[in-house]
Design a protein that fits this description.
Chain lengths: ~625, ~100, ~180
C-alpha cells in the first residue's frame, strides 16, 4: 500500500494537467469530477497509507522515483519521504483540500473561469504535497515555489479588477523576500553538509555543530526568514490581509489551512538545526508572540469579514511559531491540524455568507442571519468557538491550551511568552465573538438571495465535526492522559521537557485560560449585543488607535515610505536612463561612423582607386619613416 | 658590354606605374581603366626583370611569367565583365555602375 | 646597349603618356602596342630575350588583340569619342597628379638613397628560366594553370548572353 505514495502528489498534478489541456472544452460536470475527484482519490490513498503506516513498525518510508540532477556531488532526487510529520500534513492537505474542492463546485458554479479555478487548485494541492513529502530540500523548495505561484494565480483569480492583481503581486513579492533568505540558507546548508537530503542533514547536524555554533544560528535565521515570508509572520505579514482578494475557497485552502503553515512545517522539519541554534529558536518564539498580539489587535477593528479571518490566521500562526520557539514541536503541529479544520470551516462559512448576501463583505451590513441560514450559523459558531478556545467542548481549546501551558512551563518558555499568549487568547475570543454576534445576531440588514446548497453545507458540517472531535486525541494531563497525537509524532519530533516541578501547576494555567476566553466572549457580548452604542463610543474616543490598528499597525504605510517610495524615486530619476546615456552615445558614434563609411561606399570605382593609392602612399611613407 | 644602372630601370618602372595609376584615376571609361591596369602590371613586371638581371638570377623572369599569366586571366574575365556591364547599362561609364553604393 | 635602353625607355614613357591622353580608344591601343614593344626592347637590353619575346607575343599580341575584339563587339560609335572628351578634362588630372607625384617622389627617394649597384649585364637565357620554373617554382606553375582555367570558365560564364524568355506576342508589343 505504501508503494502508492507517489500517486498522492501525482493525482492532483494529473488533474491539473488534464484541465489545462482540455478544461475549456469539457462540461462543468466533468471539470468538477476531475478537479475534486483527483484530490478525493489522493485523500483516499492517504487514509489507506495511513492505516498501513500506523500498523507497521517502521517509522518512516522512502520512495525514490528518479534522480533529478547529478552534478559534481550535488545529486537531488525526486524522492518522497513519509513519516508521522509529513503524514499529518498530507492528511490535512488532501482531506481539507477535498472538502474545499467539493465546496468550490457549488461556490464557483457561475464563474467563467471554472476550469481555470480547478486547474490552479489542483496544481496548488500537488505542489503543497510535494513540499511536505520531499525528502530533500531542493525538491521541497520546488514545491515551496509552486505553492507561491499558485497563491499568486489564485489571489489574482479575478484579474479584471486592478486591485486583485495588485494584491497578487504584493503577496508574490513579499514572500519572495523570505524565499530569497531561505535559498541562501539552502546554499549554506549544502556548503556545510555537501548534501541537501533532509534526513542526512538532521543526523549529521549534531556532529558538525555544537549548540549555538555560528553556522547553525545563521542558517536557522535564514530558514526562519523563509518561514516568515510564507507564514505571514512579522515583519512580512502584510500580504496576507490583501490576499483575501481571491475567492473564498482559496482563502480557506491556501491562506488559512495549508500553504501559510508551510513555514511551520519547515521549522518543525528542520527542528534539529533550530535546537542547535537557541538564539534563532528564541526569535521564532518572539516573532510568533509579537505577531499574534499585533494581528489580534488589528482583527478587533476590521469590519470586512474575510479580513478579520485573515488577521486571525496570522495570529494563530503566531501561536504555532510561539510553540515552535519554546520547543513544543508536537503542540505546534497539533494546533496546525486543528487550526486547519476550524479555519477552513470559518472561511468556507464566511464565503457562503458573502456569496449568499450578494458579495457583501461588511459585517455591520449583515446581521440577523441566525434564523435565515441556520446550517451556516451553527457551523460558523462551532468554528468560532474552536478559534476562541471555548473550554472542554472544542478542539481549539485543547490545542491552544497546550501551547499556553508549554509557553510557560516548557524548558525554553518564560512568563513573557505566556503573557503574550494569554493576551492573544483574550483578543481572539473578543474579535471572534464580535464577528459572530455582529454577523448573525441583531436585525437583518441585507436580504439573503437563496439558501446554501448541499455541496456547500456538507463540507461545513464535516469540518465542524472535525474541529470539535479532533481535539480529543490529545488531552492535557490534568484532565485525562490521552497523548495519541504526540505519541504518533514522537519518532520525528522529540517530546518537550518541562521545567522542574511545573506539572502540578497545570490546572492553574488551564483555569486562567478558561476564564480569559470566557471573559472575552462576555466582553464581545456586552459591547455588541447588550449595549451596541458603547462600542461606537469607544471607537469614537480612540479613533486614532482604531485607525492605527485598522491599517494593520501601519506596516503597509511604513513599507511604502521605507522601500516603495525610495525605489519609485530612484526609478523616476533613472527614467531618463542615466546609465544608458553612455550607451546612447556609443550608438550615436557607431551610427556616425556608419554614415561616414557608407558615404565612402559610393559605388564609384575611381574613388576606390583613390583610396587604394592613398593607402599605398601611407604605407610607403610609414616604412620610410620607420626604416630611417 | 656597357652596364645599365639599376636605378634607371627601376625609375622607368616607377614612372610607367605612376602613369598607369594616373590613368586609372582619371578615366571613366571602363575599357580605358582596364588598359591602365595592364600598364601598371607591366611596370611591376619590369621591376622584377630589372632586379633579376641585377642579380643574374632567373627568378625575376619567373615572376614576370606569373604576372603575365595573371594579366591574361584578368583581361579575359575583365572583358567579359565589361561586356556584361555594357549589355546591362548601355554605357561604359564606370560611375553608372554604382548600384551597390552604401 | 646603354643607349638602346635609354632610347627605348623614353619611347615607352612617351607612348604611355599618349595612351593615357587619347580620346579614341583604338588610337590609345596602338600607342599601347608601341609602349609594349619599347618595353620589350628594354627587356632585351636588360638581358632577358625570352621575356622580351613573351612581352611581344602575349602583351602586344594576345592581350591587345583581345581588347580590340572586345571594342569591336561593343560596336562603339563616334559618340563615344565625344563622350570621352567630355569626361577627360584637364581638371580631373589635378588630384591624381598630386597623389601620383607624391608616390613617384617617394619611389625616387627610395631608389636614390639605396646602395647603388650597377646591373651586371649577363644574359639569363630561356633554359635557366625553364629550369627554375619547373624546379623550385613548379607549384606556382600549377597554380597558374588553375588560374587560367578559372579565367576561361569565368569569362565564359560572365560573357554568356542570357536568353530573354519573353512570350512572342508580348515581344512584338514591346517593340
Amino acid at each position: 500500500m505504501k508503494e502508492l505514495l507517489w500517486l498522492i502528489p501525482t493525482l492532483p498534478f494529473t488533474g491539473a494537467l488534464l484541465l489545462i489541456l482540455l478544461g475549456r472544452k469539457l462540461p462543468r460536470f466533468a471539470v468538477s469530477l476531475i478537479g475534486a475527484g483527483s484530490v478525493g482519490l489522493a485523500a483516499l490513498i492517504t487514509i489507506l497509507i495511513g492505516i498501513d503506516f500506523n500498523s507497521s513498525s517502521e517509522n518512516s518510508f522512502q520512495q525514490v522515483l528518479w534522480t533529478w540532477i547529478d552534478v559534481a556531488g550535488f545529486k537531488p532526487q525526486i524522492a518522497l519521504h513519509l513519516d508521522a510529520l509529513s503524514f499529518v500534513f498530507i492528511f490535512v492537505i488532501t482531506f481539507v483540500g477535498f472538502l474545499i474542492h467539493v465546496y468550490s463546485t457549488e461556490f464557483m458554479q457561475d464563474d467563467e473561469g471554472y476550469a481555470r479555478f480547478f486547474t490552479y487548485l489542483n496544481l496548488f494541492v500537488s505542489s503543497m504535497l510535494i513540499l511536505v513529502l520531499a525528502d530533500n530540500l531542493v525538491l521541497m523548495y520546488f514545491g515551496w515555489e509552486g505553492v507561491g505561484l499558485c497563491s499568486y494565480l489564485l489571489i489574482g483569480f479575478w484579474y479584471l479588477e486592478e486591485k486583485n492583481g495588485y494584491a497578487a503581486r504584493k503577496a508574490f513579492i513579499i514572500t519572495r523576500i523570505g524565499d530569497t533568505a531561505m535559498a541562501i540558507g539552502l546554499f549554506m546548508l549544502f556548503k556545510a553538509f555537501g548534501t541537501l537530503h533532509i534526513q542526512s542533514i538532521l543526523t549529521q547536524a549534531p556532529q558538525i555543530w555544537t549548540v549555538g555554533s555560528e553556522g547553525a544560528v545563521i542558517i536557522a535565521f535564514l530558514l526562519l526568514g523563509g518561514a516568515m515570508g510564507k507564514s505571514a509572520q512579522l515583519p512580512l505579514q502584510t500580504w496576507l490581509p490583501d490576499a483575501m482578494a481571491g475567492p473564498s475557497p482559496v482563502s480557506a485552502l491556501i491562506h488559512a489551512a495549508t500553504m501559510v503553515t508551510a513555514g511551520v512545517y519547515l521549522i518543525a522539519r528542520m527542528h534539529v538545526v533550530f535546537e542547535l541554534a537557541p538564539l534563532a529558536q528564541m526569535w521564532v518564539g518572539i516573532i510568533g508572540s509579537l505577531t499574534l498580539l499585533l494581528a489580534g489587535f488589528s482583527a478587533l477593528t476590521q469590519f470586512d469579514l474575510k479580513r478579520i479571518l485573515a488577521y486571525s490566521t496570522i495570529s494563530q500562526i503566531g501561536y504555532m511559531f510561539l510553540a515552535l520557539g519554546v520547543g513544543a514541536w508536537s503542540a505546534a503541529i497539533f494546533h496546525f491540524m486543528i487550526h486547519a479544520f476550524f479555519k477552513a470551516l470559518l472561511f468556507l462559512a464566511a464565503g457562503a455568507v458573502i456569496h449568499l448576501l450578494h458579495h457583501e463583505h461588511n459585517i455591520f451590513k449583515m446581521g440577523g442571519l441566525k434564523n435565515k441560514l441556520p446550517a451556516i450559523y451553527w457551523t460558523f459558531f462551532i468554528g468560532s468557538a474552536s478559534l476562541a478556545a471555548i473550554p472542554f467542548v472544542t478542539g481549539g481549546f485543547y490545542s491552544k491550551d497546550a501551547i499556553l501551558w508549554l509557553s510557560l512551563a516548557g524548558e525554553k518558555g518564560n512568563v513573557g511568552f505566556f503573557l503574550a499568549a494569554l493576551i492573544g487568547a483574550f483578543l481572539t475570543s473578543v474579535y471572534t465573538f464580535r464577528m459572530v454576534f455582529v454577523t448573525f445576531f441583531g436585525t437583518e440588514k441585507t436580504h439573503v438571495s437563496h439558501p446554501a446548497g448541499n455541496r456547500m453545507t456538507i463540507p461545513l458540517i464535516i469540518l465542524a465535526a472535525l474541529s470539535t472531535f479532533a481535539g480529543f486525541i490529545e488531552l492535557p494531563h490534568s484532565i485525562a492522559h490521552v497523548e495519541l497525537f504526540s505519541d504518533f509524532l514522537l519518532p520525528v519530533l522529540p517530546a518537550i521537557t518541562l521545567q522542574e516541578g511545573a506539572e502540578s501547576k497545570e490546572w492553574i494555567v488551564q483555569l486562567i485560560a478558561v476564564v480569559i476566553s470566557l471573559s472575552g466572549v462576555y466582553m464581545a457580548y456586552y459591547f455588541y449585543i447588550k449595549k451596541p452604542e458603547l462600542s461606537d463610543q469607544l471607537k469614537a474616543s480612540s479613533i486614532d488607535f482604531h485607525n492605527f490598528w485598522f491599517s494593520g499597525w501601519g506596516f503597509d504605510k511604513a513599507y511604502d515610505t521605507l522601500f516603495v517610495k525610495p525605489f519609485v524615486f530612484m526609478a523616476t530619476i533613472n527614467k531618463q536612463d542615466i546609465i544608458d546615456k553612455f550607451y546612447d552615445e556609443l550608438v550615436q558614434l557607431a551610427d556616425f561612423l556608419h554614415r561616414v563609411f557608407a558615404w565612402t561606399q559610393s559605388g564609384i570605382l575611381r574613388w576606390y582607386m583613390v583610396g587604394i593609392v592613398i593607402g599605398a602612399i601611407l604605407i610607403v611613407t610609414l616604412s620610410l619613416l620607420v626604416g630611417s | 658590354m656597357n652596364t645599365i644602372p639599376v636605378e634607371a630601370g627601376l625609375l622607368l618602372a616607377g614612372i610607367l606605374f605612376v602613369l598607369g595609376m594616373i590613368s586609372v584615376l582619371v578615366r571613366r571609361n571602363i575599357i580605358f581603366m582596364l588598359i591602365s591596369v595592364e600598364i601598371m602590371l607591366n611596370a611591376a613586371g619590369l621591376a622584377f626583370i630589372v632586379a633579376g638581371s641585377r642579380w643574374v638570377q632567373p627568378d625575376g623572369q619567373v615572376m614576370f611569367i606569373f604576372i603575365l599569366t595573371m594579366a591574361a586571366a584578368e583581361v579575359s574575365v575583365g572583358l567579359a565583365l565589361i561586356l556584361q556591364i555594357y549589355h546591362q547599362l548601355k554605357t561604359l561609364d564606370s560611375d553608372a555602375a554604382n548600384k551597390m553604393k552604401g | 646597349m646603354q643607349v638602346t635602353f635609354y632610347i627605348a625607355a623614353t619611347i615607352a614613357i612617351l607612348a604611355t603618356i599618349m595612351v593615357i591622353t587619347r580620346y579614341n580608344m583604338v588610337h590609345a591601343l596602338l600607342y599601347l602596342v608601341v609602349s609594349f614593344l619599347a618595353i620589350a626592347i628594354v627587356f632585351f637590353a636588360l638581358g632577358a630575350p625570352f621575356i622580351a619575346a613573351l612581352e611581344i607575343i602575349v602583351y602586344a599580341g594576345a592581350i591587345v588583340v583581345l581588347i580590340v575584339f572586345a571594342i569591336m563587339m561593343l560596336n562603339l560609335r563616334a559618340e563615344s569619342v565625344e563622350e570621352e572628351k567630355r569626361w577627360l578634362t584637364k581638371e580631373v588630372f589635378i588630384g591624381p597628379a598630386i597623389l601620383s607625384l607624391i608616390l613617384l617622389g617617394e619611389m625616387i627617394y627610395i631608389i636614390a638613397t639605396s646602395e647603388s649597384a650597377g646591373a651586371a649585364q649577363r644574359m639569363v637565357d630561356a633554359k635557366a628560366v625553364g629550369m627554375s620554373l619547373y624546379g623550385p617554382y613548379v607549384i606556382g606553375v600549377e597554380l597558374s594553370g588553375i588560374l587560367l582555367m578559372a579565367g576561361i570558365v569565368g569569362a565564359y560564364h560572365l560573357g554568356r548572353q542570357k536568353k530573354k524568355v519573353v512570350h512572342r506576342f508580348l515581344e512584338k508589343i514591346e517593340e
